[in-house]
């Protein structure tokens, strides 16, 4: 759920519609406005300068966008239509549910042998709810039957790493229970059953390195023996994601006053896409970021796909890089004669264009651009192979305390080991990891759509009873980013949100000795599990 | 007619008495910096200062600000330049999508003013910002930015003075840096 | 929001006169609850009477050594009041846990005491429940995990939403109210079941005397959440022995819930862990949870035990 609700401002100028929409895909949104309103797509312009989060739920104009457009037409005036919080809860989708019954086999020396699972999930009315299961680990024999259950409630929608947190949780809590059965440390057990090391499969290394950094050797066996009601525990989990991208086009203008404008019809969800565009262009042109103006979030700019699946960085960065190189080459061609050299001998760095190896033989950027006169550099370019790839891996560790007299779980520490190929900007890459982890803490402890069992109405369409972590609910988070420049840009929005809840649930089990196979870890579930444990069963 | 002082200037609005202060600010005063998140006082995105204290402008009927001083995020800058606090948010990456940011800034500005140049502990920052939800950042960088601004301000001798520099990106961006942090199994509170 | 008339009262007398009205008239103080209810069509008053300026917003010592708190006093001002903090620490502990800083800055003592229920059926315009003129309580067969575990014999299953009501009852406060028949003082515990045709003007706190107090709140989120259960205990001591005491639970019943069994279990006993455990057990002996909230029983028990240990100065967690 986003802090900014879904909505739009629509304005017509004759038969031309301009829609300012909070959307993760301006071009896709324009296409759907055109289809739904029965007008040519060339008559629709969608703009998203800034938006208050999307997390997978904001692609289409939706009913509120179309109503907004129609009202604006009828009113012959601009119309703003933002959903209120209750409408947001009822109308804009949910992460689908997941439920499973699993039988699994393991040898005495800790090798997984078989997985036999039946799973169910509901995506609401007529929508499916499948998810990957078993997740990540190698079961040589596997069988799984999934059934979608349709219920008369709002439809599911993508929610940051769709399907993965569910499949990860169901598999990872099984892994801890199996590890206990064969009396093997959970990290060691996972290493035995993880896929072999590869650039996009770094789990074994992350388990080992993370365990050292986290202080895993201090972990006690299941059930904290310490006296008193507060029990502490540690848990671990691993995840994977695809990422990678393609299809983005871009445009670069360089004018005689030295100004650089980069245009790309991508959009910034708050993930830092604008920063990324600026950084890539500036670095390529040898300029400070302040010398580059990035213009994004508008269907008047070159096409870029919607921002989903952690594909934006990998689709946008190569396009900006390639187009900027093209622009620079064009500039070199114009400046080379002035410097009495061939274009191929020139480089751009530190705000200057000069002959390779001889910084004195050159011009300041602005002076070089003066030679463009009345004919600016204006080039188009697009994504190309070789600068991006896909496939990422990560491991997370969690430490929690559980008050066994109240069932309240507090998270103490999270350690995230994560790769995403080439890190374009460390600050925003880390921010994605922080953000993924807090989203997952909400998944682990708080977020829960509660439907009245009699009427089917959601009883908590608000932020009062639909709980979200505040500042004091967030632990110390340490992040280890593994920079792999040789793999190119991949993407990092989703993977860090997959493992956290599983690591937390395993930590709660380690603390209490009670097995809880359900999220969120509300006190009523924790207390019930403790009761059951006292009664002698799981 | 309701009169109040908005970002240091007298302001009169002719609006219904129960109109939300949030809507009066955005619609009648053309100050869209204040954001609506939940509309029910849970998320703090609409925080503004009312006589020096943060309130949720979505829950305040405008009639209750008659004669009061209101400061919005638009009133935090220093003559068009970002304040030390705003600078620290930018430098440390304390914003992602940005919709919680105005409320965070206003609430943090109140904390820094009350701290009078002292650098608040992490726990104090978290308590002071308990009413401000963020879905993107994981909060840590917000806490870091508020404390960095306080450190800058304490060097300068006054909170919120412009020109105070936050630590640079490279140092603050080191996520592996050890952070000393008081345990928060329970909230500190005075007890009988 | 439905149209209504607005009256700005400037004295207690004005306020009472304005609220005496043929249609529905509601008082407005901080406005945080009323505005939200009006926006959601939970309440549609024909007249809104602003009492913020009509009622006392200060606290003053009384001749009997206690304190008198005006209903218009902001929660933040109560929280920062040094003398009240020293004499009535449980009030400060309770006030600290109210809402968010923003809510405490705008909310008033009177508003906190008079908040309408936070029940999700009551707050949803689509459910016309008992409290909105309907014929049933939807919580009984519905989602009741945050509803009452005590006092469920009547038609109401809400939990009283006021954090301040609990320590006020525990300290033996009386409430000064005014109405068309003049002013009077009622015991705090009685106020919450009275017909609401009078206006609360002051909370009168008696001198606490030789007491030990404790307060403990259990809630799920660390930042800003409604409590799952909380307890204030105020114990009159004779040396190390509890002479008598008040044990009041919050967030567990339609009113602040004073536990007679817990008070009996404390009387005449030394203040120690065994006494705390026995009193906590006694407190929940009369719990009657609903279909989905039995988990609140051990939580309430823990809140009582830890509040008593807190009064005894024994570290709990």
From TrEMBL, chain B:
Domain 2Fe-2S ferredoxin-type: 1-76
Keywords: 2Fe-2S, Iron, Iron-sulfur, Metal-binding, Oxidoreductase
Compositional bias ranges of the Low complexity kind: 152-175
Source taxon at top rank: Bacteria
Pfam families with a match to the protein in the record: Fer2, Fer2_2
Tagged with keyword Nucleotide-binding: no
Keyword Metal-binding among record annotations: yes
Positions of the UniProt region annotated as Disordered: 152-192
Ranges of Basic residues composition bias in the record: 176-192
InterPro entries per record: 2Fe-2S-bd (IPR002888), 2Fe-2S-bd_dom_sf (IPR036884), 2Fe-2S_ferredoxin-like_sf (IPR036010), 2Fe-2S_ferredoxin-type (IPR001041), 2Fe2S_fd_BS (IPR006058), Beta-grasp_dom_sf (IPR012675), Diverse_Oxidoreductases (IPR051452)
Signal peptide span: none
Name of the protein this chain belongs to: (2Fe-2S)-binding protein
UniProtKB/TrEMBL annotation, chain C:
GO molecular function, one term: FAD binding
Domain FAD-binding PCMH-type: 1-210
InterPro entries to which the protein is assigned, alphabetical: CO_DH_flav_C (IPR005107), CO_DH_flav_C_dom_sf (IPR036683), Diverse_Substr_Oxidored (IPR051312), FAD-bd_PCMH (IPR016166), FAD-bd_PCMH-like_sf (IPR036318), FAD-bd_PCMH_sub1 (IPR016167), FAD-bd_PCMH_sub2 (IPR016169), Mopterin_DH_FAD-bd (IPR002346)
Name of the protein this chain belongs to: Molybdopterin dehydrogenase
Species assigned in the record: Eiseniibacteriota bacterium
